[in-house]
Amino acid sequence: MVVPEVDKNLLTELEAMGFQTARATRALHYSGNASLEAALNWVVEHDSDADIDQMPLVPVASHNVPPKSSLTPEEIKMKQHELSPAPPFGIDLIKTVHNMLFVSVLGTNGLDPERIRIGKELLEAKRIEEENERKRLIALRKAEKDEEKRAREKIRQKLEEDKAERRRKLGLPAVSAEDHAPKPSAPVVEEKKSSLPVRPATKTEQMRECLRILKQNHKGDEAKVKTAFNTLLTFAKNVATNPNEEKFRKIRLSNPAIQERVGKLKGGVEFLELLGFEKIEGGEFLFLQRDKVDMAVLHSAGAELNSAINNPFFGVL
């Protein structure tokens, strides 16, 4: 019996995310070396297996055979469906409207005013939904640009401080003559206190704040932050793709691996609670009830996590 061959690049990525070599090798082998996401999903599904941290062994005869998926063709199709990206929010509504209008035309030859009215109302609802989604994406892009702008300003201030320190070491004034030049002062405007109540942060803003806190608390450990973000993304995507599967809506929070990657990191459990997860059985599990699955919230969570993973300036301030 020997250790099976797995994709070296995927194995390196899993190890960089904090997984032990044995667990990473087992996940890649039994997920068919399909992808990093497939391996992560396997780990989540088999996290409670007794032998998950034992190095897998295969017969010597199969050692040199390229790794293959142990799934049947039907299971491969189902797995591809699970890993395919969730449709954008609003697509289901568009299909529903289209089908209703099509049935209306076939059933009445276009002569039923009531069905025509209902169809128009549904089309208008679809248009409003698309407009709201467009505005949400614009606001998200603006928030990312503002964050990059603040990060650049912080870097500029740091450069100015370094410049002043170099001048001090050379015996020069910390501020150059140009900086002493008087600058026109802005007119003082008396601040008026608003009597309007402060609007609470949206759920999307709260999720972004959780991710920012998590990254700031672990600035010196990028691998830990990356592992946490990818784990949260896997949880959100699994529920969005399979909302009727209870195993994806129940997380054993007391599990040491989950604790290490998300549970004991400030902002991790709070992020999952914003998705609708609730602590049950004395805090041992996090559970998301089926009737509380909100696709819009899950899609927003995916967008925020992708932004946190791919935006190099995220959480700098």
Automatic annotation (TrEMBL):
Coiled coil: none annotated. InterPro entries: PUB-like_dom_sf, PUB_domain, UBA, UBA-like_sf. Residues 162-202 are annotated as: Disordered. PROSITE patterns: UBA. SUPFAM superfamilies: PUG domain-like, UBA-like. Residues 5-46 form the UBA domain. This is UBA domain-containing protein. It comes from Cuscuta campestris.
